[in-house]
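B., you asked whether I could sanity-check this one before it goes into the benchmark set. Here's the sequence:
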Amino acid sequence: MILRARAFLLLLAASLLAGGCTSIDPGTYARQAPALELRRYFDGTIDGWGMVQDRSGKVLRRFTVTIEARWNGDVGTLDERFVWSDGERQRRVWTVRDLGDQSGALLSLRPGTPVFIEGPYGAMRMDTRTTDHVVLVAAGVGITPMRALLDELPPGVLADVIYRVSAEPALLVDELRAIEAASRGQVRVQVLAGTRRRWPMTPDLLTQLVPGIANADVYACGPSGFTDSVHAAARQAGVRADACHHELFEF
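And here's what the prediction gave me:
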């Protein structure tokens, strides 16, 4: 199971919201030291262990986990590998980035502050596709669920990734290139570096980048204006309505 930055932010926001409903006041521990700094705490190899209990306190499962944490500028990757007491093995990869006004503000919210979150709605699933060709179109941090989708790509299904970024290097580009190189042609990645004015999401651009897009499923993720423009351009390029999928994340 692959989880990405959006999941991290939603869980963080949910935990802040929950703080207003619990009898434990997080402010009680505000002056405790050392302060929790993610870059210092999640750095290198971390070993952990824990358990899952039901409401009565009965232990249902135990686990051990090894986390490999690394940072590249303001982008952190937490690669978690779980081994459960029943033999199950799981892997979770978190990509975390401080994007400024929205993501950064979450860390400074006071406990009890109301937080309103819209999405995700579950559209970013490979089992919603209707064809054997998917086009994944993303802008900014919207690339994170697209990266997770590539882990669900069935054999024989072609994937075109269109990733619009303000400049390179950008989030996950190196990882996407590595996936493309190892895919033997199943995954094709195109990174559009530049402004919205240089790379507007139009029917002509989508058709130029992916000539067979009319017979593909199109997934879009990013700011609401971006996903709207991709959806409209895809429909004008001949993509069926039931083959257009998009995910919305708003704070």
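One thing to flag: Residues 1-22 have pLDDT under 50 and may be disordered. Otherwise nothing jumped out at me.
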